[in-house]
Protein backbone atom coordinates (compact mmCIF):
# COMPACT_ATOMS: atom_id res chain seq x y z
CA UNK A 1 0.00 0.00 0.00
CA UNK A 2 1.06 3.60 0.33
CA UNK A 3 0.79 6.47 -2.08
CA UNK A 4 2.93 6.55 -5.22
CA UNK A 5 4.85 9.55 -3.92
CA UNK A 6 6.25 7.64 -0.95
CA UNK A 7 8.79 6.38 -3.51
CA UNK A 8 9.79 9.90 -4.53
CA UNK A 9 11.73 12.68 -2.89
CA UNK A 10 8.66 14.74 -2.03
CA UNK A 11 4.90 14.50 -2.47
CA UNK A 12 3.04 16.76 -4.89
CA UNK A 13 2.15 20.03 -3.19
CA UNK A 14 -1.31 21.56 -3.29
CA UNK A 15 -0.88 25.15 -4.42
CA UNK A 16 -1.87 27.39 -1.50
CA UNK A 17 -1.64 31.02 -0.45
CA UNK A 18 1.33 30.00 1.68
CA UNK A 19 3.45 28.47 -1.10
CA UNK A 20 2.22 30.35 -4.19
CA UNK A 21 4.98 32.99 -4.02
CA UNK A 22 7.65 30.32 -3.88
CA UNK A 23 5.91 28.55 -6.79
CA UNK A 24 5.81 31.70 -8.92
CA UNK A 25 9.52 32.33 -8.39
CA UNK A 26 10.41 29.01 -10.00
CA UNK A 27 9.49 29.83 -13.59
CA UNK A 28 9.45 32.55 -16.25
CA UNK A 29 7.39 30.64 -18.82
CA UNK A 30 4.34 28.45 -18.37
CA UNK A 31 3.43 26.05 -21.16
CA UNK A 32 -0.20 25.06 -20.87
CA UNK A 33 -2.30 22.27 -22.27
CA UNK A 34 -5.75 23.40 -23.51
CA UNK A 35 -8.55 20.79 -23.22
CA UNK A 36 -9.33 20.12 -19.57
CA UNK A 37 -7.29 23.14 -18.45
CA UNK A 38 -8.81 26.12 -20.29
CA UNK A 39 -12.08 24.52 -21.34
CA UNK A 40 -13.68 21.13 -21.83
CA UNK A 41 -15.22 20.01 -25.14
CA UNK A 42 -18.73 21.00 -24.07
CA UNK A 43 -18.23 23.94 -21.72
CA UNK A 44 -15.91 26.52 -20.25
CA UNK A 45 -14.13 26.39 -16.90
CA UNK A 46 -14.92 29.30 -14.54
CA UNK A 47 -12.42 32.17 -14.19
CA UNK A 48 -9.89 30.71 -16.64
CA UNK A 49 -9.42 34.06 -18.35
CA UNK A 50 -8.65 35.70 -15.00
CA UNK A 51 -6.25 32.87 -14.19
CA UNK A 52 -4.33 33.38 -17.43
CA UNK A 53 -4.35 37.14 -16.95
CA UNK A 54 -2.97 36.78 -13.43
CA UNK A 55 0.01 34.90 -14.85
CA UNK A 56 0.62 37.56 -17.49
CA UNK A 57 0.22 40.29 -14.85
CA UNK A 58 2.96 38.55 -12.87
CA UNK A 59 5.25 38.82 -15.91
CA UNK A 60 5.04 35.20 -17.01
CA UNK A 61 5.12 34.21 -20.67
CA UNK A 62 2.30 31.77 -21.52
CA UNK A 63 2.46 29.31 -24.40
CA UNK A 64 -0.02 26.62 -25.37
CA UNK A 65 0.45 23.02 -26.47
CA UNK A 66 -2.44 20.72 -27.27
CA UNK A 67 -2.71 17.29 -28.83
CA UNK A 68 -6.01 18.38 -30.35
CA UNK A 69 -5.62 19.07 -34.07
CA UNK A 70 -9.32 18.53 -34.74
CA UNK A 71 -10.46 22.10 -34.15
CA UNK A 72 -7.90 24.91 -33.97
CA UNK A 73 -8.03 26.50 -30.51
CA UNK A 74 -7.81 30.07 -31.82
CA UNK A 75 -11.59 30.56 -31.96
CA UNK A 76 -11.85 29.32 -28.39
CA UNK A 77 -9.24 31.83 -27.25
CA UNK A 78 -11.26 34.52 -29.00
CA UNK A 79 -14.43 33.41 -27.24
CA UNK A 80 -12.52 33.37 -23.96
CA UNK A 81 -11.41 36.94 -24.62
CA UNK A 82 -7.74 36.07 -24.15
CA UNK A 83 -5.43 37.29 -26.91
CA UNK A 84 -2.79 34.87 -28.18
CA UNK A 85 -0.33 35.15 -31.05
CA UNK A 86 -0.35 32.40 -33.65
CA UNK A 87 3.19 31.30 -32.78
CA UNK A 88 2.28 30.93 -29.10
CA UNK A 89 0.12 27.87 -29.85
CA UNK A 90 1.18 24.50 -31.21
CA UNK A 91 -0.63 21.25 -31.94
CA UNK A 92 0.60 18.17 -33.84
CA UNK A 93 -0.61 19.27 -37.29
CA UNK A 94 1.48 22.45 -37.00
CA UNK A 95 4.55 20.65 -35.62
CA UNK A 96 4.43 17.89 -38.24
CA UNK A 97 3.91 20.41 -41.07
CA UNK A 98 6.87 22.45 -39.89
CA UNK A 99 9.02 19.35 -39.45
CA UNK A 100 8.29 18.17 -43.01
CA UNK A 101 9.03 21.65 -44.30
CA UNK A 102 12.33 21.72 -42.43
CA UNK A 103 13.54 18.38 -43.78
CA UNK A 104 12.52 19.39 -47.32
CA UNK A 105 9.93 16.62 -47.64
CA UNK A 106 8.79 16.48 -51.27
CA UNK A 107 6.92 13.18 -51.42
CA UNK A 108 3.26 12.47 -50.71
CA UNK A 109 1.93 11.87 -47.21
CA UNK A 110 -0.74 9.25 -46.52
CA UNK A 111 -2.69 10.92 -43.73
CA UNK A 112 -5.21 9.42 -41.33
CA UNK A 113 -6.56 12.58 -39.75
CA UNK A 114 -9.40 15.07 -39.89
CA UNK A 115 -9.72 17.59 -42.69
CA UNK A 116 -8.32 20.43 -40.58
CA UNK A 117 -5.21 18.37 -39.87
CA UNK A 118 -4.75 17.73 -43.60
CA UNK A 119 -5.35 21.40 -44.47
CA UNK A 120 -2.62 22.43 -42.03
CA UNK A 121 -0.19 20.10 -43.85
CA UNK A 122 -1.38 21.32 -47.27
CA UNK A 123 -0.72 24.89 -46.16
CA UNK A 124 2.95 23.88 -45.75
CA UNK A 125 3.06 22.45 -49.25
CA UNK A 126 2.58 18.77 -48.37
CA UNK A 127 0.76 16.66 -50.96
CA UNK A 128 -1.82 14.78 -48.89
CA UNK A 129 -3.44 11.49 -49.88
CA UNK A 130 -6.17 10.44 -49.94
CA UNK A 131 -6.94 13.81 -51.44
CA UNK A 132 -10.67 13.58 -50.91
CA UNK A 133 -12.90 11.79 -48.44
CA UNK A 134 -14.99 9.10 -50.02
CA UNK A 135 -18.19 7.73 -48.61
CA UNK A 136 -17.97 4.64 -50.83
CA UNK A 137 -18.35 1.40 -48.97
CA UNK A 138 -15.78 -1.32 -49.60
CA UNK A 139 -17.02 -4.36 -51.43
CA UNK A 140 -17.09 -7.27 -48.99
CA UNK A 141 -14.73 -9.40 -51.03
CA UNK A 142 -11.06 -10.25 -50.45
CA UNK A 143 -10.17 -9.81 -54.13
CA UNK A 144 -11.74 -6.36 -54.21
CA UNK A 145 -9.82 -5.40 -51.09
CA UNK A 146 -6.51 -6.56 -52.56
CA UNK A 147 -7.20 -4.65 -55.78
CA UNK A 148 -7.77 -1.50 -53.71
CA UNK A 149 -4.21 -1.64 -52.33
CA UNK A 150 -1.89 0.26 -54.63
CA UNK A 151 1.87 0.31 -54.22
CA UNK A 152 2.92 3.95 -54.45
CA UNK A 153 6.63 4.57 -53.92
CA UNK A 154 5.99 8.29 -54.00
CA UNK A 155 4.35 8.10 -50.58
CA UNK A 156 7.11 9.10 -48.18
CA UNK A 157 5.19 9.26 -44.92
CA UNK A 158 2.25 7.73 -43.11
CA UNK A 159 0.89 10.27 -40.65
CA UNK A 160 -1.68 9.32 -38.03
CA UNK A 161 -3.80 11.48 -35.74
CA UNK A 162 -7.43 11.36 -34.67
CA UNK A 163 -9.47 10.44 -37.74
CA UNK A 164 -13.18 10.30 -37.01
CA UNK A 165 -13.86 8.71 -40.42
CA UNK A 166 -11.17 6.06 -40.19
CA UNK A 167 -11.96 2.83 -42.04
CA UNK A 168 -10.65 -0.71 -42.06
CA UNK A 169 -9.14 -0.14 -45.51
CA UNK A 170 -7.30 2.99 -44.29
CA UNK A 171 -5.48 0.80 -41.75
CA UNK A 172 -4.79 -1.85 -44.40
CA UNK A 173 -3.37 0.71 -46.84
CA UNK A 174 -1.28 2.39 -44.14
CA UNK A 175 0.19 -0.98 -43.16
CA UNK A 176 1.14 -1.66 -46.77
CA UNK A 177 2.84 1.75 -47.16
CA UNK A 178 4.75 1.15 -43.93
CA UNK A 179 6.27 -2.04 -45.39
CA UNK A 180 8.73 0.26 -47.14
CA UNK A 181 11.44 1.28 -44.63
CA UNK A 182 11.93 4.62 -46.39
CA UNK A 183 8.33 5.60 -45.62
CA UNK A 184 8.28 7.66 -42.40
CA UNK A 185 5.75 6.83 -39.69
CA UNK A 186 4.77 9.99 -37.80
CA UNK A 187 2.00 10.31 -35.23
CA UNK A 188 0.36 13.31 -33.59
CA UNK A 189 -1.98 12.62 -30.70
CA UNK A 190 -1.57 9.20 -29.10
CA UNK A 191 -4.29 9.51 -26.47
CA UNK A 192 -6.19 6.25 -26.04
CA UNK A 193 -9.33 7.79 -24.59
CA UNK A 194 -10.81 11.21 -24.16
CA UNK A 195 -13.12 11.28 -21.17
CA UNK A 196 -14.66 14.52 -20.09
CA UNK A 197 -18.21 15.65 -19.79
CA UNK A 198 -21.02 13.40 -18.64
CA UNK A 199 -18.75 10.38 -18.31
CA UNK A 200 -18.93 9.67 -22.04
CA UNK A 201 -15.84 8.15 -23.61
CA UNK A 202 -14.31 9.02 -26.96
CA UNK A 203 -11.62 6.79 -28.38
CA UNK A 204 -8.37 8.53 -29.21
CA UNK A 205 -6.02 7.43 -32.00
CA UNK A 206 -3.71 5.50 -29.62
CA UNK A 207 -5.41 2.16 -30.24
CA UNK A 208 -5.07 2.47 -34.01
CA UNK A 209 -1.46 3.60 -33.80
CA UNK A 210 -0.66 0.51 -31.72
CA UNK A 211 -2.49 -1.62 -34.30
CA UNK A 212 -0.39 -0.14 -37.10
CA UNK A 213 2.81 -0.60 -35.10
CA UNK A 214 1.95 -4.23 -34.49
CA UNK A 215 0.87 -4.90 -38.09
CA UNK A 216 3.88 -3.17 -39.67
CA UNK A 217 6.52 -4.09 -37.11
CA UNK A 218 7.45 -0.38 -37.09
CA UNK A 219 7.69 2.04 -34.19
CA UNK A 220 5.94 5.36 -34.79
CA UNK A 221 7.82 8.62 -34.35
CA UNK A 222 5.89 10.55 -31.74
CA UNK A 223 5.32 14.23 -32.51
CA UNK A 224 2.41 14.87 -30.09
CA UNK A 225 2.63 14.86 -26.29
CA UNK A 226 4.13 13.10 -24.33
CA UNK A 227 6.84 13.32 -27.01
CA UNK A 228 9.03 16.39 -26.47
CA UNK A 229 9.04 17.74 -30.03
CA UNK A 230 6.25 20.33 -29.87
CA UNK A 231 7.99 21.97 -26.90
CA UNK A 232 11.66 21.20 -27.32
CA UNK A 233 11.76 21.94 -31.04
CA UNK A 234 8.81 24.07 -32.12
CA UNK A 235 8.34 26.38 -29.10
CA UNK A 236 12.00 26.26 -28.14
CA UNK A 237 13.09 27.48 -31.57
CA UNK A 238 10.58 30.31 -31.67
CA UNK A 239 10.65 31.47 -28.06
CA UNK A 240 14.13 30.42 -26.94
CA UNK A 241 12.87 28.70 -23.78
CA UNK A 242 15.03 27.92 -20.79
CA UNK A 243 13.56 24.58 -19.66
CA UNK A 244 14.93 25.04 -16.14
CA UNK A 245 12.71 28.12 -15.84
CA UNK A 246 9.66 26.63 -17.58
CA UNK A 247 6.70 24.81 -16.04
CA UNK A 248 4.14 22.66 -17.84
CA UNK A 249 0.49 22.89 -16.78
CA UNK A 250 -1.91 20.16 -17.81
CA UNK A 251 -4.70 17.84 -16.74
CA UNK A 252 -3.31 14.55 -18.06
CA UNK A 253 -0.73 12.51 -16.19
CA UNK A 254 0.54 10.54 -19.19
CA UNK A 255 0.51 13.25 -21.86
CA UNK A 256 1.16 16.40 -19.82
CA UNK A 257 3.31 15.32 -16.91
CA UNK A 258 4.98 13.02 -19.45
CA UNK A 259 5.96 15.84 -21.83
CA UNK A 260 7.19 17.88 -18.85
CA UNK A 261 9.50 14.99 -17.93
CA UNK A 262 10.64 14.56 -21.53
CA UNK A 263 11.65 18.23 -21.73
CA UNK A 264 12.92 18.71 -18.18
CA UNK A 265 10.16 21.13 -17.16
CA UNK A 266 8.54 21.50 -13.76
CA UNK A 267 5.02 20.13 -13.48
CA UNK A 268 1.69 21.65 -12.43
CA UNK A 269 -1.36 19.37 -12.59
CA UNK A 270 -4.83 20.89 -12.80
CA UNK A 271 -7.76 18.82 -11.58
CA UNK A 272 -10.34 20.45 -13.89
CA UNK A 273 -10.01 17.80 -16.60
CA UNK A 274 -9.33 14.11 -16.83
CA UNK A 275 -7.34 13.50 -13.62
CA UNK A 276 -8.66 13.34 -10.08
CA UNK A 277 -6.61 13.74 -6.92
CA UNK A 278 -7.07 10.07 -6.04
CA UNK A 279 -5.35 9.08 -9.31
CA UNK A 280 -2.07 10.38 -7.84
CA UNK A 281 -2.11 7.56 -5.30
CA UNK A 282 -1.76 4.89 -7.95
CA UNK A 283 0.02 6.54 -10.87
CA UNK A 284 3.58 5.95 -12.03
CA UNK A 285 5.69 7.96 -9.54
CA UNK A 286 7.56 9.50 -12.50
CA UNK A 287 4.32 11.18 -13.59
CA UNK A 288 3.60 12.84 -10.26
CA UNK A 289 3.42 16.65 -10.52
CA UNK A 290 5.42 19.06 -8.39
CA UNK A 291 2.26 21.05 -7.66
CA UNK A 292 -1.46 20.62 -8.23
CA UNK A 293 -4.43 22.98 -8.21
CA UNK A 294 -8.16 22.39 -8.67
CA UNK A 295 -8.35 24.86 -11.54
CA UNK A 296 -6.34 27.65 -13.10
CA UNK A 297 -9.37 29.79 -12.21
CA UNK A 298 -8.24 29.55 -8.56
CA UNK A 299 -4.93 31.30 -9.24
CA UNK A 300 -6.03 34.95 -8.94
CA UNK A 301 -7.44 34.35 -5.45
CA UNK A 302 -4.26 32.57 -4.38
CA UNK A 303 -2.22 35.46 -5.74
CA UNK A 304 -4.41 37.92 -3.90
CA UNK A 305 -5.64 39.41 -7.17
CA UNK A 306 -9.33 38.61 -6.71
CA UNK A 307 -11.78 38.99 -3.89
CA UNK A 308 -11.03 41.07 -0.88
MG1 LIG B 1 -5.85 18.07 -21.55
UniProtKB/TrEMBL annotation:
GO terms for cellular component: cytoplasm. Mg(2+) binds at residues 33, 35, 251. Keywords: Hydrolase, Magnesium, Metal-binding. Its cofactor is Mg(2+). The keyword Metal-binding applies. Pfam families: Hydrolase_6, Hydrolase_like. The active site is at residues 33, 35. One of its GO terms (molecular function) is phosphatase activity. Divalent metal ions. Mg(2+) is the most effective. Substrate binds at residue 225. The keyword Hydrolase applies. InterPro entries: HAD-like_sf (IPR036412), HAD-SF_hydro_IIA (IPR006357), HAD_sf (IPR023214). NCBIfam families: HAD-SF-IIA. Belongs to the HAD-like hydrolase superfamily. This is Glycerol-3-phosphate phosphatase-like. It comes from Frankliniella occidentalis. The lineage of its organism: Eukaryota, Metazoa, Ecdysozoa, Arthropoda, Hexapoda. The gene is LOC113214065.
